């Protein structure tokens, strides 16, 4: 059996966002090779050491930069691939064309899959799309398959970048479901004590980046709408993912309003699986691009309904009216109204949450993600 190379555009051991991909790459590669010694990982820099997500049985690590255009380094890539009898390559966020691809093929790579955690392009139509398709068809040494986390992101490849549909594939993200234990009655009060939240409030949860496209401002405005304008005192908004000081970007929206005491920014935490079951519902109000965020899977696995903006990619994270609710992109008023509906209808909330958990169990375990990854490679 020949070997498999998994490579990334970032330095080694960068943290959670990349670790979950490293886990899947490693275990899918093992499913195929059945030999840890035949699995290789490569990064532009190894200065940060080995990721905890990669099994300790993996011992082959190389400092290789596939974005390089330096001929000497590209020859090193070719030699490494040839010397280690690597015939399959899995790259993270690798574009249609790079100079290194020719050297990979010369070294012996016959299967090349690029796994994307973001959209490849904005959508195109007409002549522009036709030109994109022509451009892709003329590129010889490109990946054989482009894999995405959602149908929406796949669409950006086919109708944006011009990738032929048969050269695309969808593999949803997966999690360790056993870490997330639903608590429909919210009997665990730990989160209330941790953040000094009055226990008569129902907690609305968000976890993710604070950049504009994630729509945190929309959620904050919905909080103001609910508390200041609709008079709700039984709700509290809990945000996670903010670096120190990032929360100040939203001060002008809610500081000085009645909602101020109903909003908490909790920063980065590694124990969200303990916090989630005490929450009432999750929200994702993305206004720019997004794929199939891990936080949406964690929310569903915890038995919470999710309210999500009706946007390409993220809309797939809920079955509208069954595992959660969708609202128009950027519409904080409608979001507030839907939140009020759930606040006033706990049996509906519980039903949505229970179905969300079942959906995650059936579609989003790490084992299922690894299996789909193997199937994607087998399709090449």
From TrEMBL:
Keywords: Transferase
GO BP term, example: carbohydrate derivative metabolic process
MF (Gene Ontology): glycosyltransferase activity
Domain of life: Bacteria
Domain Glycosyl transferase family: 197-359
Name recorded for this polypeptide: Glycosyltransferase family 4 protein
Organism: Exilibacterium tricleocarpae
